[in-house]
Specification:
Helix content is 85%, strand content 0%. The protein is mainly α and 117 residues long.
């Protein structure tokens, strides 16, 4: 099946991408550093609290908001954690772009006018 072969080729290209390599390196560094890993877990827990509150139509208390903002500053102040999140963001952007291209190709919309190429 040619379509399966193309999917495998795309998967290989993604696996060999600099974005995924950077993300995996940053992830390995974080996993090897207990303090950085703990900071990420705290941040993700805080994000989930914010998301859950919004989904339920609530706002966080002023104290909780300040705690989360302080945690965000701490996260962005930690070079290893910041690099992890930035590399994750770059890889996620690649995947989102690929998905958009696939969706546009499936629906028959041209990319030339929207991507400049």
């Amino acid at each position: 099946m040619p379509i399966i072969a193309k999917a495998m080729e795309l998967g290989t290209e993604i696996a060999n991408s600099s974005e995924l390599k950077s993300f995996r390196e940053a992830e390995a560094a974080v996993l090897a550093n207990a303090a950085a890993y703990d900071l990420i877990r705290q941040y993700q827990t805080g994000q989930q609290e914010v998301k859950t509150a919004r989904m339920n139509g609530r706002t966080l208390s002023e104290e909780k908001q300040q705690e989360f903002e302080a945690l965000q500053k701490k996260v962005m102040g930690n070079t290893m954690v910041r690099e992890y999140f930035e590399s994750q963001q770059r890889f996620d952007q690649v995947i989102q772009t690929i998905n958009q291209i696939l969706q546009q190709a499936i629906s028959g919309n041209s990319l030339c006018s929207s991507s400049g190429g």
